[in-house]
DNA sequence: ACCTGAACACCGTTCAAGT
DNA sequence: ACCTGAACACCGTTCAAGT
C-alpha cells in the first residue's frame, strides 16, 4: 500500500528526472513528499528515489536531514510572499491588515496540513521569531505595518505576541483536525471509540457536537475577538 | 558530552536497576529521559540502558516506540490529576474554574518543556479530544463543570474549542521560548544573529523588546480576554 | 515468566572512487 | 563537477533461545 503511494509520487517526478539536481528542486520534492506521506516518512533515501538519484547525492546541496526540513519551512513560507493579500501594507486600516495576514497564513496551513507542524513547532533560531511566523520578512512586514498605523513599539510587539499565539493554537488544531493525522491508510469514518468513554457521560453525550468541524468560524471569531481586544487597548492608551 | 548526561540519568536510576520492569517504570524513565535529553534522543536501546536492561525487554510491556510516547503523554496528563487546583469542580464560579484549569495545564507544560510538544502536537485518536487536553477525564471535567455553571451544550463546546486553542498556542510558544529548543549543548547567550537581519530594520531595532520574556503576563492577559469574551457571549444569549 | 543474542530491514552520514 | 558504492554506526522490531 505505501508502495502504491510512493510510485504515484515518483510518477509525478519522473519527467524531470534528467534535469540536474539543485537545492530548490530537492526542497520542492521534499515538500511534495511530505504533503503526500507525512514528515516521518520522509527519508533521505526515499527522497533520493523520488528524484531519481541516490541518497548520497543530496548531501551536495543540503547539509543534512535537519537542514532539509528547515529548507522546507522556508519553501512553505516563501509561498506566502507570492500572496498579494499578505505581502501588502495596511491600506484599509490595521484591522484589515491583521485579517489578511491571518487568512494568508491559514491558507498555507490548510494547503499543507502535514507540513504545517514543521512551521509551527520547529524551534526558532531566534527568540523573537515566533512560530508560525517563521520568516523575518513577515515579522518585519507585520511590525512595520503596525507602526505605520500609529502603534507604539511596545504595542506592536504585544500585538505580535498575541497574534502568533492565536495563529499557532488555532491553525495547529485545525490542521490536525483535517486529517493531518491520517497515516498511510485513511479509514473512511472511524467508529465512535467506546474504549475509555466509561465514566465520561458528558463527553459521550456531546460527541456529535464535539465532532463538528467549526474551524473556520472558530478562527474568525477568535480573530475578531483578538482585534477587539487590541482596539480597546489602543484606544484606552490614547493612540 | 552526551555520555556525561546519559550517565547522570543512569545514575539516578541505578538503585532501582534490580526491581523488575513494569510498564509504569518504563514510562517514568522515558519521561525523565525526555526531560533531560529531548524526545528525538529517546531510543529504545538507550531507554533500555537507563533501566539496566536490553532494548528488547521493553517490548514485553510496550508495543513499540510510538505507543511508548503515547504512554508518556498519559503519564504527564495523569500528573495533573493529582493537582488539587485542577481536579476540583467550580466552586467559585466558572471564571475561577477556567483560571485554575489553565494554570494547572501551564504548570505541567513548564515543568516538562521538552515533553510538552508530545501532549500538544500528537494527533488525537478522536476528533473531540483536542490537544493539549489529551485526557478524557479532563475533558469530561471541563465540560461538566461548565454545564453545572449553567452553560448550554453548545456554549460549553464553544468554550472548550476556544480554550484549547488558547492553551495550545500560548503554551507551545512559551515552552519553546524557555529552551525547550536547547539541544545537547546549551549556548550561554546566543549573540544577536546578524545573518538575515539585512532589510529588517524594524526587527533589528525592536530586538531587545522582542527578546523579553513576558510569557506569564501574556498568558494571563490572553486568558483574561478569553474569559471576557465568554462572559459577553453568555450574558448576551441570556444564560 | 522474564530477559537476551542474534538477526533483519532500514536509517543518516562519510568518503574514496568513478564518470 | 556531479553522482555512486561501499561502509559505518545506529535505529526499531522479531523471534528463537536461554535462565
Pair of chains with the largest interface and how many residues each contributes: A-B, 60 and 60 residues
- The computed structural class of chain A is mainly alpha
Shape of chain A: flat
Main beta sheet strand tally, sense and closure of chain A: none
* Count of DSSP strands of chain A: 0
Q: How much helix, percentage-wise, in residues of chain A? A: 55-70%
Total of DSSP H or I helical runs spanning 4+ residues of chain A: 11
What name is given to the CATH topology of the largest domain in chain A? Tetracycline Repressor, domain 2
**What CATH architecture of the largest domain in chain A would you give?**
Orthogonal Bundle
Average pLDDT of chain A, rounded to a whole number, is: 86
Distance between the termini of chain A: 60 Å
User: Which CATH class of the largest domain in chain A applies here?
Assistant: Mainly Alpha
Low-confidence stretches of chain A: 1-17, 182-192
User: Which percent range describes the beta-strand content of chain A?
Assistant: under 5%
What is the N-to-C succession of helices and strands of chain A?
A: HHHHHHHHHHH
Name the quaternary structure.
homodimer
Radius of gyration of chain A: 21 Å
| Structural domain tally of chain A | 2
Amino acid at each position: 500500500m505505501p508502495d502504491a503511494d510512493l510510485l504515484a509520487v515518483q510518477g509525478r517526478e519522473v519527467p524531470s528526472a534528467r534535469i540536474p539536481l539543485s537545492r530548490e528542486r530537492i526542497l520542492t520534492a521534499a515538500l511534495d513528499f511530505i504533503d503526500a506521506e507525512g514528515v516521518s516518512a520522509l527519508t533521505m533515501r526515499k527522497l533520493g528515489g523520488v528524484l531519481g538519484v541516490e541518497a548520497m547525492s543530496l548531501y551536495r546541496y543540503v547539509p543534512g536531514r535537519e537542514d532539509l526540513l528547515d529548507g522546507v519551512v522556508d519553501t512553505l513560507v516563501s509561498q506566502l510572499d507570492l500572496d498579494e493579500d499578505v505581502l501588502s501594507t495596511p491600506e484599509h486600516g490595521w484591522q484589515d491588515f491583521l485579517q489578511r495576514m491571518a487568512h494568508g497564513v491559514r491558507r498555507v496551513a490548510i494547503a499543507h496540513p502535514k507540513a504545517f507542524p514543521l512551521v509551527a513547532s520547529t524551534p526558532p533560531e531566534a527568540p523573537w521569531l515566533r512560530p508560525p511566523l517563521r520568516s523575518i520578512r513577515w515579522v518585519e512586514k507585520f511590525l512595520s505595518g503596525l507602526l505605520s498605523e500609529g502603534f507604539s513599539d511596545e504595542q506592536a510587539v504585544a500585538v505580535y505576541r498575541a497574534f502568533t499565539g492565536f495563529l499557532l493554537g488555532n491553525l495547529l488544531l485545525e490542521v490536525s483536525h483535517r486529517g493531518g493525522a491520517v497515516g498511510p491508510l485513511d479509514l473512511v469514518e472511524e467508529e465512535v471509540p467506546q474504549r475509555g468513554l466509561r465514566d465520561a457521560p458528558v463527553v459521550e453525550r456531546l460527541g456529535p457536537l464535539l465532532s463538528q468541524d467549526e474551524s473556520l468560524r472558530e478562527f474568525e471569531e477568535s480573530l475578531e475577538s483578538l482585534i477587539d481586544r487590541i482596539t480597546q487597548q489602543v484606544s484606552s492608551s490614547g493612540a
